[in-house]
Design a protein that fits this description.
Blueprint lengths: L3 E8 L14 H5 L7 H13 L6 E8 L8 H16 L5 E6 L6 H9 L2 E9 L3 H6 L6 H13 L3 E6 L8 H13 L4 E4 L4 E2 L3 H7 L8 H17 L4 E4 L12 E3 L6 H18 L7 E6 L4 H5 L4 H10 L2 E6 L7 E4 L2 E4 L1
Parallel strand pairs: 1-2, 2-3, 3-4, 4-5, 5-6, 6-8, 10-11
Antiparallel strand pairs: 7-9, 10-12, 12-13
Helix pairs in contact: 2-3, 7-9, 9-10
This protein binds iron/sulfur cluster (SF4).
Iron/sulfur cluster binds next to loops.
Length: 341
Protein backbone atom coordinates (compact mmCIF):
# COMPACT_ATOMS: atom_id res chain seq x y z
CA UNK A 1 0.00 0.00 0.00
CA UNK A 2 1.25 3.49 -0.88
CA UNK A 3 2.48 5.53 2.07
CA UNK A 4 0.51 8.60 3.10
CA UNK A 5 2.68 11.71 2.95
CA UNK A 6 2.24 14.41 5.57
CA UNK A 7 4.08 17.71 5.79
CA UNK A 8 3.94 19.69 9.03
CA UNK A 9 4.48 23.33 7.95
CA UNK A 10 6.11 25.75 10.32
CA UNK A 11 6.04 29.26 8.90
CA UNK A 12 8.94 31.48 9.88
CA UNK A 13 7.62 34.84 8.68
CA UNK A 14 10.15 37.34 7.41
CA UNK A 15 12.27 36.52 10.41
CA UNK A 16 15.92 36.75 9.52
CA UNK A 17 15.22 38.49 6.25
CA UNK A 18 16.56 42.01 5.80
CA UNK A 19 15.40 42.12 2.17
CA UNK A 20 12.35 43.70 0.73
CA UNK A 21 11.46 41.88 -2.46
CA UNK A 22 8.86 43.86 -4.36
CA UNK A 23 6.29 41.05 -4.31
CA UNK A 24 6.68 40.02 -0.70
CA UNK A 25 4.71 40.88 2.33
CA UNK A 26 5.65 37.70 4.10
CA UNK A 27 3.33 38.33 7.02
CA UNK A 28 0.35 38.50 4.69
CA UNK A 29 1.36 35.41 2.75
CA UNK A 30 1.77 33.15 5.72
CA UNK A 31 -1.05 34.69 7.71
CA UNK A 32 1.27 34.74 10.71
CA UNK A 33 2.04 38.01 12.40
CA UNK A 34 4.41 36.88 15.10
CA UNK A 35 7.91 35.48 15.02
CA UNK A 36 8.38 31.74 15.37
CA UNK A 37 9.87 30.42 18.59
CA UNK A 38 10.97 26.89 19.53
CA UNK A 39 8.04 26.66 21.92
CA UNK A 40 5.52 27.61 19.24
CA UNK A 41 7.14 25.24 16.76
CA UNK A 42 6.79 22.37 19.25
CA UNK A 43 3.13 23.21 19.80
CA UNK A 44 2.44 23.27 16.05
CA UNK A 45 4.15 19.91 15.58
CA UNK A 46 2.18 18.35 18.45
CA UNK A 47 -1.09 19.72 17.08
CA UNK A 48 -0.46 18.31 13.61
CA UNK A 49 0.73 14.96 14.92
CA UNK A 50 -2.40 14.60 17.04
CA UNK A 51 -4.54 14.66 13.87
CA UNK A 52 -2.45 12.20 11.84
CA UNK A 53 -2.70 8.51 11.26
CA UNK A 54 0.98 7.73 11.65
CA UNK A 55 0.76 4.12 10.45
CA UNK A 56 2.34 3.61 7.05
CA UNK A 57 3.04 7.33 6.70
CA UNK A 58 5.95 9.50 5.67
CA UNK A 59 6.01 12.59 7.87
CA UNK A 60 8.17 15.65 7.23
CA UNK A 61 8.52 18.90 9.15
CA UNK A 62 8.98 21.90 6.86
CA UNK A 63 10.26 25.34 7.77
CA UNK A 64 8.61 27.57 5.20
CA UNK A 65 7.77 31.18 4.67
CA UNK A 66 10.93 33.16 5.14
CA UNK A 67 14.61 32.81 4.74
CA UNK A 68 15.34 30.15 7.27
CA UNK A 69 19.07 30.07 6.87
CA UNK A 70 19.18 33.87 7.17
CA UNK A 71 18.50 33.39 10.86
CA UNK A 72 21.49 33.38 13.19
CA UNK A 73 22.91 29.87 13.33
CA UNK A 74 21.91 29.71 17.01
CA UNK A 75 18.27 30.48 16.20
CA UNK A 76 18.26 28.01 13.29
CA UNK A 77 19.67 25.37 15.59
CA UNK A 78 17.07 25.99 18.30
CA UNK A 79 14.24 25.44 15.82
CA UNK A 80 15.97 22.50 14.15
CA UNK A 81 16.53 20.81 17.52
CA UNK A 82 12.84 20.95 18.33
CA UNK A 83 11.96 19.28 15.04
CA UNK A 84 14.87 16.84 15.04
CA UNK A 85 13.76 15.39 18.39
CA UNK A 86 10.77 13.91 16.51
CA UNK A 87 13.14 12.35 13.96
CA UNK A 88 15.19 10.80 16.74
CA UNK A 89 12.03 9.36 18.27
CA UNK A 90 11.14 7.83 14.91
CA UNK A 91 7.92 9.85 14.64
CA UNK A 92 9.05 12.13 11.83
CA UNK A 93 11.12 10.99 8.85
CA UNK A 94 13.03 14.15 7.97
CA UNK A 95 13.07 17.94 7.86
CA UNK A 96 12.96 20.30 4.90
CA UNK A 97 13.09 24.07 4.49
CA UNK A 98 13.02 26.96 2.08
CA UNK A 99 15.51 29.77 1.93
CA UNK A 100 17.33 32.29 -0.24
CA UNK A 101 20.15 31.31 -2.60
CA UNK A 102 22.58 33.76 -1.02
CA UNK A 103 22.04 32.29 2.45
CA UNK A 104 23.75 29.02 1.63
CA UNK A 105 27.33 28.24 2.56
CA UNK A 106 29.31 25.31 3.91
CA UNK A 107 28.81 26.22 7.57
CA UNK A 108 25.04 26.46 7.12
CA UNK A 109 24.83 23.20 5.20
CA UNK A 110 27.03 21.38 7.70
CA UNK A 111 24.65 22.46 10.43
CA UNK A 112 21.51 21.44 8.49
CA UNK A 113 23.02 18.04 7.76
CA UNK A 114 23.27 17.33 11.52
CA UNK A 115 19.50 17.67 11.91
CA UNK A 116 18.32 15.36 9.17
CA UNK A 117 17.30 18.11 6.78
CA UNK A 118 16.82 16.37 3.43
CA UNK A 119 15.30 18.93 1.11
CA UNK A 120 16.38 22.55 0.65
CA UNK A 121 14.20 24.69 -1.55
CA UNK A 122 15.63 27.87 -2.97
CA UNK A 123 13.47 30.88 -3.72
CA UNK A 124 15.07 31.47 -7.10
CA UNK A 125 12.11 33.27 -8.71
CA UNK A 126 14.01 34.09 -11.92
CA UNK A 127 17.40 33.48 -13.44
CA UNK A 128 17.37 36.65 -15.49
CA UNK A 129 19.49 39.31 -13.84
CA UNK A 130 17.30 42.23 -14.93
CA UNK A 131 14.23 40.57 -13.41
CA UNK A 132 16.01 39.85 -10.13
CA UNK A 133 17.14 43.46 -9.99
CA UNK A 134 13.71 44.86 -10.82
CA UNK A 135 12.28 42.64 -8.08
CA UNK A 136 14.85 43.90 -5.53
CA UNK A 137 15.84 40.34 -4.77
CA UNK A 138 19.33 41.31 -3.71
CA UNK A 139 20.96 38.21 -5.20
CA UNK A 140 22.27 37.29 -8.62
CA UNK A 141 21.81 34.27 -10.89
CA UNK A 142 25.35 33.30 -9.95
CA UNK A 143 24.27 33.00 -6.28
CA UNK A 144 21.65 30.50 -7.42
CA UNK A 145 24.15 28.44 -9.41
CA UNK A 146 26.63 28.39 -6.55
CA UNK A 147 24.05 27.52 -3.88
CA UNK A 148 22.48 24.79 -6.02
CA UNK A 149 25.84 23.16 -6.73
CA UNK A 150 26.75 23.23 -3.04
CA UNK A 151 23.37 21.84 -1.94
CA UNK A 152 23.77 18.95 -4.38
CA UNK A 153 27.38 18.41 -3.39
CA UNK A 154 26.35 18.02 0.24
CA UNK A 155 23.81 15.40 -0.81
CA UNK A 156 20.62 17.37 -0.05
CA UNK A 157 17.68 17.25 -2.41
CA UNK A 158 17.29 20.54 -4.25
CA UNK A 159 14.00 22.37 -4.76
CA UNK A 160 13.64 25.38 -7.02
CA UNK A 161 10.86 27.93 -6.78
CA UNK A 162 10.12 30.13 -9.80
CA UNK A 163 7.83 33.13 -10.18
CA UNK A 164 6.68 33.88 -13.71
CA UNK A 165 5.31 37.37 -14.24
CA UNK A 166 7.74 39.40 -12.12
CA UNK A 167 8.55 42.99 -13.15
CA UNK A 168 10.59 43.23 -16.34
CA UNK A 169 9.98 39.59 -17.18
CA UNK A 170 9.19 38.55 -20.73
CA UNK A 171 8.26 35.23 -22.31
CA UNK A 172 11.91 34.92 -23.21
CA UNK A 173 13.21 35.57 -19.69
CA UNK A 174 10.67 33.19 -18.17
CA UNK A 175 11.65 30.31 -20.44
CA UNK A 176 15.31 31.17 -20.07
CA UNK A 177 14.81 30.79 -16.31
CA UNK A 178 13.19 27.40 -16.80
CA UNK A 179 16.03 26.20 -19.03
CA UNK A 180 18.60 27.36 -16.51
CA UNK A 181 16.64 25.77 -13.68
CA UNK A 182 16.52 22.47 -15.59
CA UNK A 183 20.29 22.69 -15.90
CA UNK A 184 20.52 22.70 -12.09
CA UNK A 185 18.86 19.23 -12.06
CA UNK A 186 16.51 20.00 -9.20
CA UNK A 187 14.63 17.20 -7.47
CA UNK A 188 11.45 19.26 -7.38
CA UNK A 189 10.07 22.55 -8.60
CA UNK A 190 7.31 24.93 -7.52
CA UNK A 191 5.88 27.56 -9.84
CA UNK A 192 4.18 30.56 -8.27
CA UNK A 193 2.81 33.06 -10.79
CA UNK A 194 3.35 36.55 -9.37
CA UNK A 195 0.43 37.97 -7.43
CA UNK A 196 0.09 41.52 -6.20
CA UNK A 197 -0.19 41.37 -2.44
CA UNK A 198 -1.36 44.39 -0.44
CA UNK A 199 1.35 46.29 1.40
CA UNK A 200 4.11 45.41 -1.09
CA UNK A 201 6.14 47.57 -3.42
CA UNK A 202 4.49 45.75 -6.26
CA UNK A 203 1.09 46.91 -4.99
CA UNK A 204 2.37 50.50 -5.17
CA UNK A 205 3.70 50.01 -8.70
CA UNK A 206 0.43 48.39 -9.68
CA UNK A 207 -1.67 51.24 -8.33
CA UNK A 208 0.59 53.73 -10.10
CA UNK A 209 0.16 51.84 -13.37
CA UNK A 210 3.82 50.86 -13.54
CA UNK A 211 3.32 47.12 -13.16
CA UNK A 212 0.82 44.92 -14.94
CA UNK A 213 0.45 41.38 -13.64
CA UNK A 214 -0.16 38.43 -15.92
CA UNK A 215 -3.80 37.78 -16.68
CA UNK A 216 -5.16 34.46 -15.50
CA UNK A 217 -5.12 33.09 -19.05
CA UNK A 218 -1.54 34.25 -19.67
CA UNK A 219 -0.40 32.71 -16.41
CA UNK A 220 -2.12 29.42 -17.25
CA UNK A 221 -0.46 29.33 -20.68
CA UNK A 222 3.00 30.11 -19.32
CA UNK A 223 2.74 27.65 -16.45
CA UNK A 224 1.53 24.98 -18.86
CA UNK A 225 4.58 25.43 -21.07
CA UNK A 226 6.88 25.44 -18.04
CA UNK A 227 5.20 22.30 -16.68
CA UNK A 228 5.73 20.57 -20.03
CA UNK A 229 9.41 21.47 -20.04
CA UNK A 230 10.04 20.22 -16.51
CA UNK A 231 8.02 17.06 -17.09
CA UNK A 232 9.92 16.35 -20.29
CA UNK A 233 13.07 16.17 -18.12
CA UNK A 234 11.39 14.05 -15.45
CA UNK A 235 11.48 16.88 -12.90
CA UNK A 236 8.40 16.86 -10.65
CA UNK A 237 6.49 20.12 -10.35
CA UNK A 238 4.98 19.74 -6.91
CA UNK A 239 3.00 22.96 -6.85
CA UNK A 240 1.67 25.49 -9.34
CA UNK A 241 0.03 28.62 -7.98
CA UNK A 242 -0.56 29.72 -4.44
CA UNK A 243 -3.45 27.80 -3.01
CA UNK A 244 -5.54 28.87 -0.04
CA UNK A 245 -4.26 25.81 1.81
CA UNK A 246 -0.73 27.18 1.66
CA UNK A 247 -1.75 30.01 3.94
CA UNK A 248 -2.51 32.73 1.40
CA UNK A 249 -4.79 35.28 2.82
CA UNK A 250 -6.97 35.72 -0.25
CA UNK A 251 -8.11 39.13 0.93
CA UNK A 252 -4.49 40.28 0.69
CA UNK A 253 -4.30 39.55 -3.06
CA UNK A 254 -5.24 42.75 -4.82
CA UNK A 255 -4.40 41.74 -8.40
CA UNK A 256 -2.84 39.00 -10.47
CA UNK A 257 -3.72 35.50 -11.66
CA UNK A 258 -5.13 34.10 -8.44
CA UNK A 259 -7.47 31.14 -8.78
CA UNK A 260 -8.31 28.67 -6.03
CA UNK A 261 -7.80 25.76 -8.45
CA UNK A 262 -4.97 27.23 -10.50
CA UNK A 263 -3.10 23.98 -10.97
CA UNK A 264 -6.19 22.29 -12.25
CA UNK A 265 -6.64 25.05 -14.82
CA UNK A 266 -3.09 24.43 -16.02
CA UNK A 267 -3.42 20.65 -16.10
CA UNK A 268 -6.78 20.80 -17.88
CA UNK A 269 -5.41 23.19 -20.46
CA UNK A 270 -2.52 20.81 -21.09
CA UNK A 271 -4.90 17.86 -21.45
CA UNK A 272 -6.95 19.79 -24.00
CA UNK A 273 -3.82 20.50 -26.07
CA UNK A 274 -2.74 16.88 -25.95
CA UNK A 275 -6.16 15.56 -26.94
CA UNK A 276 -6.37 17.97 -29.87
CA UNK A 277 -2.89 16.97 -30.99
CA UNK A 278 -3.92 13.32 -30.77
CA UNK A 279 -7.21 13.78 -32.63
CA UNK A 280 -5.70 15.91 -35.37
CA UNK A 281 -7.69 18.14 -37.68
CA UNK A 282 -10.92 16.17 -37.78
CA UNK A 283 -12.75 13.22 -36.27
CA UNK A 284 -14.80 10.95 -38.49
CA UNK A 285 -16.98 9.37 -35.78
CA UNK A 286 -20.04 11.29 -34.55
CA UNK A 287 -19.20 10.42 -30.98
CA UNK A 288 -16.10 9.65 -28.90
CA UNK A 289 -15.85 8.06 -25.49
CA UNK A 290 -12.96 8.98 -23.22
CA UNK A 291 -12.17 6.65 -20.35
CA UNK A 292 -10.20 7.92 -17.38
CA UNK A 293 -9.38 7.19 -13.78
CA UNK A 294 -11.95 8.87 -11.49
CA UNK A 295 -9.18 11.02 -9.98
CA UNK A 296 -8.45 12.47 -13.42
CA UNK A 297 -12.05 13.01 -14.44
CA UNK A 298 -12.31 16.65 -13.38
CA UNK A 299 -8.95 17.49 -14.98
CA UNK A 300 -10.08 15.98 -18.28
CA UNK A 301 -13.41 17.78 -18.18
CA UNK A 302 -11.91 21.12 -17.18
CA UNK A 303 -13.60 23.71 -15.02
CA UNK A 304 -17.35 23.72 -15.75
CA UNK A 305 -16.77 21.04 -18.41
CA UNK A 306 -14.93 23.61 -20.53
CA UNK A 307 -12.65 21.03 -22.15
CA UNK A 308 -15.55 18.88 -23.27
CA UNK A 309 -17.39 21.90 -24.59
CA UNK A 310 -14.29 23.08 -26.48
CA UNK A 311 -13.81 19.65 -28.09
CA UNK A 312 -17.48 19.30 -28.98
CA UNK A 313 -17.40 22.71 -30.58
CA UNK A 314 -14.13 22.18 -32.44
CA UNK A 315 -14.94 18.75 -33.85
CA UNK A 316 -18.74 18.93 -33.94
CA UNK A 317 -19.02 15.58 -32.15
CA UNK A 318 -20.59 14.23 -29.00
CA UNK A 319 -18.22 13.32 -26.20
CA UNK A 320 -18.83 10.95 -23.33
CA UNK A 321 -16.62 10.28 -20.35
CA UNK A 322 -16.50 6.95 -18.56
CA UNK A 323 -14.59 6.16 -15.41
CA UNK A 324 -12.13 3.28 -15.51
CA UNK A 325 -10.04 2.95 -12.37
CA UNK A 326 -7.79 0.35 -13.99
CA UNK A 327 -6.21 3.26 -15.79
CA UNK A 328 -3.43 5.24 -14.20
CA UNK A 329 -3.80 8.89 -13.31
CA UNK A 330 -3.14 10.91 -16.52
CA UNK A 331 -3.97 8.00 -18.79
CA UNK A 332 -6.85 8.47 -21.20
CA UNK A 333 -8.36 5.78 -23.32
CA UNK A 334 -9.69 7.31 -26.53
CA UNK A 335 -11.27 4.97 -29.04
CA UNK A 336 -9.51 2.06 -27.29
CA UNK A 337 -6.11 3.67 -27.70
CA UNK A 338 -4.22 4.73 -24.63
CA UNK A 339 -2.90 8.25 -24.48
CA UNK A 340 -0.70 9.38 -21.64
CA UNK A 341 -1.09 13.05 -20.88
S1 LIG B 1 13.86 37.16 0.63
FE1 LIG B 1 11.96 36.02 0.92
S2 LIG B 1 11.19 36.64 2.91
FE2 LIG B 1 12.75 38.13 2.31
S3 LIG B 1 11.60 39.79 1.37
FE3 LIG B 1 12.27 38.41 -0.24
S4 LIG B 1 10.61 36.95 -0.54
FE4 LIG B 1 10.26 38.00 1.41
Amino acid sequence: MKKRHYIIPIFVPHQGCPHDCVFCNQREITGFQEDMTPKKAARIIEEYLSTMNKENSKIEIAFYGGSFTGLEIKEQTQLLEVAYKYCQEGIVDNLRLSTRPDYIDREILNNLAKYNVQIIELGVQSLADKVLQASCRGHTPEDVFKASRLIKKFGFELGIQLMPGLPKSTQESMFYSVQQAIGLTPDLVRIYPTLVIGGTKLAESYSEGEFTPLTLQEAVEICKEELKLFRSRGIPVVRIGLQPSSGVNKEAVIAGPFHPAFRQLVESNLVLDRIKAYLGAKVDEPQLTFRVNSRFNSVLRGQKNNNLKALQEEYGIKIEVEVDNDLDYREILIAERKQII
